[in-house]
Design goal:
The complex is a heterodimer of chains A (110) and B (593). Chain A is built from six helices and no strands. Chain A has 110 residues and is mainly alpha-helical. The termini of chain A are far apart. Chain B has five domains: 33-62, no CATH class; 63-237, no CATH class; 259-344, Fumarate Reductase Iron-sulfur Protein, Chain B, domain 2 (Orthogonal Bundle); 365-467, Rossmann fold; 477-592, Rossmann fold, CATH 3.40.50. Helix content of chain B is 59%, strand content 6%. In chain B, strands 2-1-3-4 form a four-stranded parallel beta sheet, sandwiched between helices. The A-B interface holds A 31-33, 46, 48-49, 51-53, 74, 76-84, 86-88, 92, 94, 96-97, 100, 103, 107 and B 345, 347, 349-352, 354-356, 371-372, 374-375, 400-404, 408-409, 412, 414, 417, 421, 526, 528, 531-535, 563, 566. Bound molecules: iron/sulfur cluster (SF4) (4 copies). Residues 43, 46-50, 57, 79-85, 95-96 of chain A line the site of one iron/sulfur cluster.
Chain lengths: 110, 593
């Protein structure tokens, strides 16, 4: 096919009724500040791990809410738990515990 | 032979107590690693044993440390421990002198007044009766304070005292009953046979006036014996196990038994040494400022002992070290908390293979800002400026890409993952061949000093700046500003660095006193060690700490930790600044030669 420099993106529709929300619910239950994230991305901008990789905590939270958890385990392993995101977050999300809870949630499901 | 059936409850209780305590202690010793057991053997037969005995007398009997923190509470503990000990010791002496024999059954001195009905014919007989009455009075005064404390804890200056379960109350009551019953028993004996002292005789005479003493006296002796027996049997299962255990703990410390990070025998001994005196409860800001009343070390330790560790209790703590600082038994509550977190968290979760190989940076002084300092850029810029001005060759270790020091992971209980970050940092530090590592963050400083095993100078920037000033490498102008200084937990209680920041601030302005200084300083509330549902409490704590620091209306609230600064600025109307910033502003620029 001739490459015109454009791409057709794969269909990214997500059916929220059927996605796997177990992990999201688990995190919500154990660290309720997960609910108040507004997805501003300040955490990602300040992230120590993000300095070295494309690790993106904001996106990760979004993916978990959407039930797209295939890559969560390898991604979350990059976090140093340094706490910068927690200090930077304008909403007061307890990000470190969100991360620890995600790790726990993944473990319990295995 | 002097025997009566009523001595049985006491004797059986004492026998069981003896067996149970020996069993527990030998269990501990058997579980120790071999080299620690050797240390223990060596210690017992060395001069160190003298120091152990001294500390046992000062702390287990006289409770000097509690005295220093809270005199009335100290008196209460002392009157029980020392008073009872003297009753036993002198009672033994008295009965032995009387009987003229070394061998006595253990109950004989305890129930001496039951068996002996005539005034003693031994030297200092009256002195003995006096002393025995005196120490009984001492213990009784302790019982009275303990009783009032339960009714109204503010009497001893505690806002809150420990909460008790049914069994604890049972054990406590049996202890409290011992001494009034002894008083009644001895007084009634005195009422019948005139053998009492300054307290028991008048009471005995009064009893004799209206009570049928010949029957009642015998009942009192039975009750006295039963209360002793019950207490002895309860002791190993109640908090009173701290009485024998504290001696073991003191010995362990003096003999240099090793501590590990995990929950080990040393920590188990610490757990059983907690007397639940409650001092830690009032020191904890989660209690005094945020009304969280179930996680304080006294309760936390109890939950370990009851094998009922709940994650919430383990995690909801600032690891601020305030309780540890004031614990009269010297229990390392912070380490204990972390060892419990390790049970929940110490799993390899992280993978830092993405960290690139580092190109060595050669320099003399290495400056490590740390994650928190990167979020308070004025601190790191000030430090860079100060370093440049001092003309000391330095490199900024984490200027672009910062690898976390690992302590946040450590504080969450995950030492395995922390090790990986530490390794990455150690490589950079060692390859730099620097002789000094300076950091702005007390959190990093603590892990550098305690875990990294670096063979170079590791300094906090306050120490480094103080050196620069005394060596004349930088000059600082004074000002008329008034400053209130906040000691960060890890810098102060954690590493004992109290004076250097103050000495710098004395150069830059007038230092004001506040109510919570040095080892009594408060936690800013921002601690990253608290991992659970903490945001609301954090607000409450930080606000109140700022109120305290602002009380004298200083021009600047100074601190020496980026995390404290970041936490405070949100709540303070007064300017909050790190020491490095203040120095940087008032530094007289030396003209380049
Ligand atoms: S900074 Fe806070 S609110 Fe913003 S995306 Fe991150 S967690 Fe959500
Ligand atoms: S705690 Fe993890 S997610 Fe947050 S800034 Fe540090 S590395 Fe990034
Ligand atoms: S931990 Fe220390 S201060 Fe707290 S109750 Fe126990 S002995 Fe007392
Ligand atoms: S370390 Fe601090 S927060 Fe934790 S129990 Fe002790 S005083 Fe309370």
């Amino acid at each position: 096919m001739i490459d015109f420099g454009y791409k057709i993106q794969a269909d990214r529709q997500i059916n929220l009724d059927t996605t796997d929300k177990d992990l999201a619910n688990f995190v919500r239950k154990h660290e309720n500040s997960f609910n108040i994230c507004i997805g501003c991305g300040t955490c990602t901008a300040s992230c120590s791990a993000g300095n070295f990789t494309n690790f993106n905590f904001r996106k990760l939270q979004l993916f978990i809410c959407r039930g797209e958890i295939a890559d969560v385990k390898t991604e979350i392993a990059k976090c140093m738990l340094c706490g910068k995101c927690q200090l930077a977050c304008p909403r007061g999300v307890n990000t470190r515990n969100v991360i620890m809870t995600i790790r726990k949630g993944l473990e319990e499901q295995l | 032979m002097n025997f009566d059936w009523f001595v049985l409850p006491f004797s059986i209780g004492l026998f069981l107590l003896f067996i149970l305590v020996i069993f527990k202690i030998s269990f501990w010793i058997r579980q120790l690693p071999l080299n620690d057991r050797l240390l223990l053997n060596k210690g017992i037969f060395s001069l160190k044993i003298l120091r152990v005995i001294k500390e046992v007398i000062l702390e287990s009997l006289l409770h000097l440390r509690i005295f220093k923190i809270n005199p009335l509470l100290g008196f209460m503990h002392m009157s029980f421990a020392f008073g009872w000990f003297m009753l036993i010791a002198i009672g033994n002496l008295e009965s032995r002198m009387y009987a003229g024999t070394e061998l006595n059954l253990p109950y004989y001195p305890i129930f001496f007044k039951f068996f002996i009905h005539k005034p003693l014919e031994i030297p200092f007989a009256e002195g003995f009766t006096f002393i025995m009455d005196f120490f009984l009075l001492l213990v009784l005064s302790g019982v009275l304070i303990a009783f009032s404390k339960r009714i109204y804890s503010k009497i001893v200056g505690l806002k809150r005292t420990t909460k008790l379960k049914a069994f604890d109350i049972f054990a406590m009551l049996s202890l409290w009953l011992i001494f009034p019953l002894r008083l009644f028993a001895e007084s009634s004996a005195a009422g019948m046979y005139h053998t009492g002292g300054f307290m028991t005789q008048p009471i005995g005479n009064a009893f004799a006036g209206f009570l049928p003493l010949d029957t009642l006296s015998y009942i009192f002796w039975w009750a006295y014996s039963i209360s002793l027996g019950v207490f002895f049997v309860c002791l190993p299962y109640s908090r009173y196990m701290h009485i024998p255990t504290e001696i073991i703990l003191i010995a362990f410390r003096h003999f240099g038994i090793h501590r590990s990070k995990e929950y080990d025998i040393f920590k188990d001994v610490e757990v059983f040494s907690c007397s639940r005196c409650g001092i830690c409860i009032d020191k904890c800001q989660l209690n005094t400022m945020a009304q969280v009343t179930n996680i304080q070390s006294a309760y936390f330790i109890k939950s370990i002992r009851k094998k009922n560790q709940q994650e919430e209790i383990v995690q909801n703590c600032l690891i601020c070290g305030r309780c540890q600082e004031f614990c009269p038994v010297g229990i390392k509550t912070d380490d204990l908390r972390l060892s419990q977190r390790m049970i929940f968290e110490n799993k390899e979760n992280a993978n830092f293979n993405y960290l690139p190989p580092q190109t060595p940076i050669k320099t003399e002084v290495l400056y490590f800002a740390g994650c928190m300092t990167h979020l308070t850029p004025s601190i790191k810029l000030s430090m860079v400026n100060i370093l440049k001005n001092s003309k000391i060759p330095f490199k900024f270790m984490d200027e672009e890409e910062s690898i976390c020091c690992g302590r946040p992971l450590m504080l969450s209980g995950n030492t395995k993952d922390a090790q990986k970050l530490m390794q990455a940092n150690i490589e950079i530090i060692c390859s730099s061949q620097a002789h000094t590592l300076v950091t702005s963050c007390p959190i990093c400083l603590r892990i550098f000093k305690e875990e990294y095993n670096l063979n170079i100078n590791v300094l906090h920037h306050s120490q480094f700046i103080e050196n620069l000033i005394t060596e004349g490498k930088i000059r600082v102008q004074t000002s008329t500003k008034t400053i209130s200084y906040h000691d960060p937990c890890d810098l102060g209680r954690g590493l004992g660095i109290y004076d250097e920041p103050r000495s710098i601030l004395a150069h830059t302005g007038t230092l004001l006193k506040n109510n919570f200084e040095k080892n009594n300083s408060l936690c800013c509330g921002g601690s990253i060690a608290n991992n659970q549902n903490y945001n609301l409490n954090k607000d409450k704590i930080s606000k109140q700490v700022i109120e305290h620091l602002s009380s004298k209306n200083p021009d600047i609230i100074a601190t020496a930790c980026p995390l404290c600064k970041k936490t405070f600025v949100k709540y303070s109307d007064i300017r909050v600044a790190d020491i490095a910033e203040i120095v940087n502003e008032q530094m007289i620029l030396l003209h380049s030669s």
